[in-house]
Design goal:
- The chain has 3 domains: 19-66, SH3 type barrels, CATH 2.30.30; 99-146 and 268-392, Beta Barrel (Thrombin, subunit H), CATH 2.40.10; 154-262.
- By secondary structure, the chain is an alpha+beta fold.
- The protein contains 6 helices and 20 strands.
Length: 402
């Protein structure tokens, strides 16, 4: 990911918190008041986000909750009013509404592929932007683990780059120490030569021509030592600055990792560009999968299809948000099943991670996860088998067909 010291730190400055304009207040029976940007209410518990994590309160300990605005309420472009363009107007959708007709009116899907695209969304986190899709009508969202969490592979790669930077700094320091020793030896030699010159000036047997030659040599040596000293001091200062950069970047990286570990809420952007805050339900420990949830809404969703019912060479489609192009669709063929992965020639670009791989009937067979690039071929795409989603998140998802 990073090959030069100057590029080492691009990951560590991506932390841009999702803005939250809410100032909700929870009034406790003991007289205390809690302010929070996000509140989730259950039957017996009320959870609120604080310091990157979730804190739970018993509902019996709460007197009342006052919302600055209703939770999870999105803002979206309104439909044009009769006789007007509607340009620049927005409307707020009520919490708990059915999003299917809203999205259907905005997208107006005419094919199974467009229907599937309606259920696909973008997921934004401090790591960047990825994709996801609804897998149930209750707002359950599937995405990749690496879209919402720093994986061990990411940590290993970043720490590997830090260690490489440290090694380069150590080599630079060793070189500077050796150069300083050479400089000091040359300086001692210069002053020995200068002392000999002063003594020679008192010797009547030394010719003036000889003295002139030695004097010119001393002047040349002195000029050389001055240039050497300036060059050494310049590179020593560069080393000092580089060391500070690495130390500060490591501190920011550690803070970034700590913040990501406790993060529970992520911005999701639907096909009509409406934005919501979805919360993290579970991260798979076995696969590159994560489950989010948009609570309180009825949503469009993709129905699964077992890969064994798909013939090799059948046309498939990858939906996602490559390099920021929302809800883009690329096509290819189903190439092969490779253990838990489905191999495809459909283009899976950065930003497509977590999006669905679907068949021509609009059913999902896999979760786009990676692309292999090598000499002699442009790229082979892979998606995790959709069956793994229901295997990993069985306790949170309706049974297939329900």
């Amino acid at each position: 990911m990073f090959k030069k010291l100057a590029l080492l730190f691009c990951l560590f400055f991506l932390w841009v918190p999702v803005p939250g304009a809410q100032a909700h207040k929870i009034y406790l029976k003991n007289g205390k008041v809690v302010s929070a940007t996000v509140i989730i209410e259950d039957d017996t518990l009320v959870r609120y986000e604080k310091y990157g994590g979730m804190i739970a309160l018993l509902r019996s300990d709460i007197e009342r909750i006052e919302y600055d605005r209703q939770p999870a309420r999105p803002v979206t472009a309104s439909a044009p009013a009769a006789g007007g363009s509607g340009q620049g107007k927005t409307e707020k959708q009520e919490s708990g509404q059915d999003l299917v007709p809203v999205l259907r009116q905005a997208i107006q899907p005419g094919t199974p592929i467009e229907e599937a695209n309606m259920a696909t969304l973008a997921v934004e986190s401090a790591l960047g932007s990825g994709s996801g899709f609804f897998i149930s009508s209750h707002g359950d969202i599937v995405t990749n683990r690496h879209v919402v969490k720093v994986t061990e592979e990411m940590k290993a790669e970043s720490l590997g780059q830090f260690n490489a930077a440290k090694r380069r700094l150590t080599q630079a320091k060793t070189s500077l120490v050796a150069e300083k020793n050479r400089y000091l030896m040359a300086k001692d030699s210069y002053y020995s030569k200068k002392g000999a010159y002063r003594r020679a000036k008192k010797d009547p047997n030394i010719s003036s021509a000889r003295l002139q030659s030695v004097h010119q040599s001393l002047q040349s040596d002195y000029a050389h030592l001055q240039r050497w000293k300036q060059d050494y001091e310049k590179r020593a200062e560069e080393y000092k600055k580089a060391k500070q950069v690495v130390r500060k970047a490591k501190g920011k990286y550690d803070a970034f990792i700590q913040g990501m570990q406790g993060r529970r809420f992520y911005k999701v952007i639907l096909a009509d560009k409406t934005e919501f805050d979805a919360y993290l339900v579970k991260v798979s420990q076995n696969y590159d999968l994560a489950l989010l949830r948009l609570k309180g809404y009825t949503t469009p969703y993709l129905r699964p299809r077992n890969i064994v019912t798909v013939s090799q060479g059948a046309t498939v489609f990858a939906i996602g948000n490559p390099v920021g192009f929302r809800n883009s669709i690329s096509s290819g063929v189903y190439s092969a099943k490779r253990e838990d992965h489905i191999q495809t020639s459909a283009e899976i670009s950065p930003g497509n991670s977590g999006g669905p791989l679907i068949t021509a009937d609009g059913k999902v067979i896999g979760v786009n996860t990676k692309k292999m690039i090598g000499k002699g071929y442009e790229g082979i795409g892979f998606a995790l088998d959709i069956e793994l989603v229901f295997q990993e998140f069985a306790e949170f998802l309706p049974k297939k067909g329900e």
